[in-house]
Design goal:
By secondary structure, the chain is an alpha/beta fold. It has nine helices and nine strands. It folds into two domains: 149 residues, Rossmann fold (3-Layer(aba) Sandwich); 82 residues, SIR2/SIRT2 'Small Domain' (2-Layer Sandwich), CATH 3.30.1600.10. It has a six-stranded parallel β-sheet, with helices on both faces. A three-stranded antiparallel β-sheet has the order 5-4-6. The longest helix has 11 residues.
Length: 239
């Protein structure tokens, strides 16, 4: 496949690569993405998934929030796939300098990558909204109903960015990493969610590569666009 050969050449010639990942990176680990035809956003629910995963829903109707959250975003038992494993090798070789991810599944860190900016947070960090006591993902996901703090009895909140909330401090680190990359590989994301998708605009390096099943708003800016399955692409690449 000519596109994969071209991507290999770009990787070989680059020394400061940043990988920007979306939910499509984790679908081969058995997780649903959001905006594809089989994604979470096409589920038929009384409230839209955006409403159910909003800050307003968490504070006003935590029972509805957690019912959806525990049923659909529990990825504790998920394992890294071909793409995650390739990125680990690329980092070990010194070419991959950072991963910027919209994913909350923690799979990049579970793989062993060292520099990962989780700009939408992670399910693996949870805190009581009152006393700030830390709780594991297992505690939250396995709770019956709304998980409560065993010290003060208040609600536990996952450290994920809900609709209506600000992005974490690592967003600025992600911007800096992308701005200094010579190759930016964007994979598994529709690039429709703001402000995360605007990160592509700070990239001024040599090559922008977009790998996604569907068309994105930034395809016309890319040096290379590949519309194919990510595992298929990355299992053919060499580090």
């Amino acid at each position: 496949m000519r596109e994969i050969e071209l991507l290999q050449k770009m990787i070989d010639e680059s020394n400061h690569i940043v990988f920007f990942s979306g939910a499509g990176v984790s679908t081969d680990s058995g997780l649903k993405d959001f905006r594809s035809k089989n994604g979470l956003y096409h589920m038929k629910t009384i409230y839209s998934p955006e409403d159910l995963l909003s800050s307003r829903m968490f504070y006003q109707h935590p029972d509805l929030f957690y019912q959806f959250y525990q049923e659909n975003l529990n990825c504790i038992n998920s394992k890294p796939n071909v793409t995650h494993l390739y990125l680990k090798k690329l980092e070990e070789k010194g070419k991959l300098k950072a991963i910027v991810t919209q994913n909350i599944d923690g799979l990049h860190k579970k793989t062993g990558n060292q520099t990962v900016y989780e700009i939408h947070g992670t399910i693996y960090k949870n805190h009581c909204i009152n006393c700030n006591q830390f709780y594991s993902a297992e505690y939250v996901m396995n709770a019956h109903g709304v998980p409560k703090c065993d010290k003060c009895g208040s609600i536990i909140k996952p450290d994920v960015v809900l609709y209506g909330e600000m992005l974490p401090e690592c967003y600025e680190d992600a911007k800096y990493a992308i701005a200094n990359a010579d190759l930016l590989i964007v994979a598994g994301t529709s690039l429709l969610v703001q402000p995360a998708s605007s990160l592509v605009q700070v990239f001024h390096g040599k090559n922008l590569v977009i790998i996604n099943n569907d068309v994105t708003p930034y395809d016309d800016r890319a040096s290379l666009v590949i519309h194919d399955n990510l595992s298929y692409v990355f299992q053919q690449l060499k580090t």
